[in-house]
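pls design
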C-alpha cells in the first residue's frame, strides 16, 4: 500500500512533517505536502484519528510476527526497523501509555485517537505498508493488560517462569479471556515468547490452576479437615522475630515518632533485597520481592517517593493501587486482584482507619472482625505479609498492647505488634520494640535515628522497652479517662456478651462512674439485650450484629 492509498484508506489528510522522529511543523498537512516533504528526505507521521488505535511493538520483532501468525490475525500491519505497528479499530477509550504489557507477554506502546502520531516508514519503492486491505476490530489478544511490569520475552529456566506465567494468565483472565483463549495464549507464550519452553505437563498444571478460580465457593460441598492429616510446618519469617510471613503485623506509634520512615525502610529492604538487623547485633539478608505501599496520609511524589529513594528502595518493585477515582477499602476486590497479579511479599496499609471503609467503626469489634479475618485469609492464601500501621489511643493504659487505636480485635488479629517510639528522656533516641509476638519469643528492641542526610539509620540493640517509651505520654485528663473506659469495656467484652450488672459493678471498681460507663458503651455501639422474657430475665451488654 502506497502513501496515496493509505490516505484514502484511512479517510482523510492527517499527516505530520518530521525530521527523523521529531515533528518539525505544528500543522497537520495533506497528501501533496507529505509527498513533497518525503522527496526532500524528510519523514512523515500519521496523526491517529478517532476510532483507531496503534499498538507499537519494538521488542521481539520475530516473536511478534509469529504471534500474529499463530493467532491468525489479519489487520493493517507496518513493519518498522525495530518492530511492528498494528492498526485496529475501536470504540473504547484506551490509555495513551508506554511500557504496557500485551496478553502475549510483550511490551508495547499505545497510540490513541488525537493524542499523538506514529512515524510511517517509507521505502525507496514507495511502499509503507504490507498488503492488507482491512483494519480489524481491537481483539482481546492485543488489549493492554499490565502497566510498569516486566516483559515475558526471553525468560529462561530458573527465572521464575511458572509463577510469572500463572500471574500473567490470571491477569488475562481478569480482562475477560475464556478458558480456550487462556490455553491458546499459554501455548504461544511458552513456545514463542519464552527463551526456553517449559514441559507441557507444567503448562497444563498452570492452566488448570487458573481454571480453579471459576469455582463459586458458595456452591461447594462441605469440606472437613482432619487434624490428624495436617502436617506441622515451620514458621516462615520476612524478618525474624518481628514480622512473620503470611500473617498480619501491626505497627503502632504516635505522629512524628517514625512509623512511616520505618515502613519505608522495610519496603526498601524487600524491594531491593537489602538487609535488616538481627538479634545478634548484625544484619540478615532479605529476599527481594514486590511491595504494595498503600498510603492515605502522604503524597506519593513529594513525600513517599523521596523517603523510599533515600532508604535505597527499588521503586520499580513498589506498587500502589490508584484509588483516586474510587477510594479503596480492605474489603475491596482490588486488594485480592493486586495479590493475584503481582504476588507481593509485603503489603503496607498506612494507616488502618483510612482503609476500613467509611461505614465501619474501628471501635466496634463486630465491624472490625470481618475485615481482619479477610485480610488474614488473603495473607495466608497469597503468602504475603500485611503490615498495618496504626495510630495510638490517647488513654493511659498500663500495657502497651492496649495502646492501639480502636477495637482490641485489631491487636488480637495480629500475630506480631511493633511499637515505634522515642526515649522520653532523649527524643533523639528512638527504637522499635516488640509489643506482641504469638509465634516466637519477643525480639530485643532495636534502636534507630532519623537523619536528614541518610533518613532511617539503624543503631543496633536498644535497652528501650515499649512500656519505657510510653511511660511519660500524657493527654488531657477527661479525654484520657474516657479512652481508658472504652478500652476497658472492649477488653472485658472480647469473648462476647457480658451481664450488664457485672459490667457496671466491675466498671465502678475499676474507677469509672456509671454515667461514664454508659457513655462509653454508646460510643462503642454496644446495646443492652434481654435474655428471655419476664421481669427477672437478665440483661446483657452486646454488640450489634453486622449489617
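designed seq:
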Amino acid at each position: 500500500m502506497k502513501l496515496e492509498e493509505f490516505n484514502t484508506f484511512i479517510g482523510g489528510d492527517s499527516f505530520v512533517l518530521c525530521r527523523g522522529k521529531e515533528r518539525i511543523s505544528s500543522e497537520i498537512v495533506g497528501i501533496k505536502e507529505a509527498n513533497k516533504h518525503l522527496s526532500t528526505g524528510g519523514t512523515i507521521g500519521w496523526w491517529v484519528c478517532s476510532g483507531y488505535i496503534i499498538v507499537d511493538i519494538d521488542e521481539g520483532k520475530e516473536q511478534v510476527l509469529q504471534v500474529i501468525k499463530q493467532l491468525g490475525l489479519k489487520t493493517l500491519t507496518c513493519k518498522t526497523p525495530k518492530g511492528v505497528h498494528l492498526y485496529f479499530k475501536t470504540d473504547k477509550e484506551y490509555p495513551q501509555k508506554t511500557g504496557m504489557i500485551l496478553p502475549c507477554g510483550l511490551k508495547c506502546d499505545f497510540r490513541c485517537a488525537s493524542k499523538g502520531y506514529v512515524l510511517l516508514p517509507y521505502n525507496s519503492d514507495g511502499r509503507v505498508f504490507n498488503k492488507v486491505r482491512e483494519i480489524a476490530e481491537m481483539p482481546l489478544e492485543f488489549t493492554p493488560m499490565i502497566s510498569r511490569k516486566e516483559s515475558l520475552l526471553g525468560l529462561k529456566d530458573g527465572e521464575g517462569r511458572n509463577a510469572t506465567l500463572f500471574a500473567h494468565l490470571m491477569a488475562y483472565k481478569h480482562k475477560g479471556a475464556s478458558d480456550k483463549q487462556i490455553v491458546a495464549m499459554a501455548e504461544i507464550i511458552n513456545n514463542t515468547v519464552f527463551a526456553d519452553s517449559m514441559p507441557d505437563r507444567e503448562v497444563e498444571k498452570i492452566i488448570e490452576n487458573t481454571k480453579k478460580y471459576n469455582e463459586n465457593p458458595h456452591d461447594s460441598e462441605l469440606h472437613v479437615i482432619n487434624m490428624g492429616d495436617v502436617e506441622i510446618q515451620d514458621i516462615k519469617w520476612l524478618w525474624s522475630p518481628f514480622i512473620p510471613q503470611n500473617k498480619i503485623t501491626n505497627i503502632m506509634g504516635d505522629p512524628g515518632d517514625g512509623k512511616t520512615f520505618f515502613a519505608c525502610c522495610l519496603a526498601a529492604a524487600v524491594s531491593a533485597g537489602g538487609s535488616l538487623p538481627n538479634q545478634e547485633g548484625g544484619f540478615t539478608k532479605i529476599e527481594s520481592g514486590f511491595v504494595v505501599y498503600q498510603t492515605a496520609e502522604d503524597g506519593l511524589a513529594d513525600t513517599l517517593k523521596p523517603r523510599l529513594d533515600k532508604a535505597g528502595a527499588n521503586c520499580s518493585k513498589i506498587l500502589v493501587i490508584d484509588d483516586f477515582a474510587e477510594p479503596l477499602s480492605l474489603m475491596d476486590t482490588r486488594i485480592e486482584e493486586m495479590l493475584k497479579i503481582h504476588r507481593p511479599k509485603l503489603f503496607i496499609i498506612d494507616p488502618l482507619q483510612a482503609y476500613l471503609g467509611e461505614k465501619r467503626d474501628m471501635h466496634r469489634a463486630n465491624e472490625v472482625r470481618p475485615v481482619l479475618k479477610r485480610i488474614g485469609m488473603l495473607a495466608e492464601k497469597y503468602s504475603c505479609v500485611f503490615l498495618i500501621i496504626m495510630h495510638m489511643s490517647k488513654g493511659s493504659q498500663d500495657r502497651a498492647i492496649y495502646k492501639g487505636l480502636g477495637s482490641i480485635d485489631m491487636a488480637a488479629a495480629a500475630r506480631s505488634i511493633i511499637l515505634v517510639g522515642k526515649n522520653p528522656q532523649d527524643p533523639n533516641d528512638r527504637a522499635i520494640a516488640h509489643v506482641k509476638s504469638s509465634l516466637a519469643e519477643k525480639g530485643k528492641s532495636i534502636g534507630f535515628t532519623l537523619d536528614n542526610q541518610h533518613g532511617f539509620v539503624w543503631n543496633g540493640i536498644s535497652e528501650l522497652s515499649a512500656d519505657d517509651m510510653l511511660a511519660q505520654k500524657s493527654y488531657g485528663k477527661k479525654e484520657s479517662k474516657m479512652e481508658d473506659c472504652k478500652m476497658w469495656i472492649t477488653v472485658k467484652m472480647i469473648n462476647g456478651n457480658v451481664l450488664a450488672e457485672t459490667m457496671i459493678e466491675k466498671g465502678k471498681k475499676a474507677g469509672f462512674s456509671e454515667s461514664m460507663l454508659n457513655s462509653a458503651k454508646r460510643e462503642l455501639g454496644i446495646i443492652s439485650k434481654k435474655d428471655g422474657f419476664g421481669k427477672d430475665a437478665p440483661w446483657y451488654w452486646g454488640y450489634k450484629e453486622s449489617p
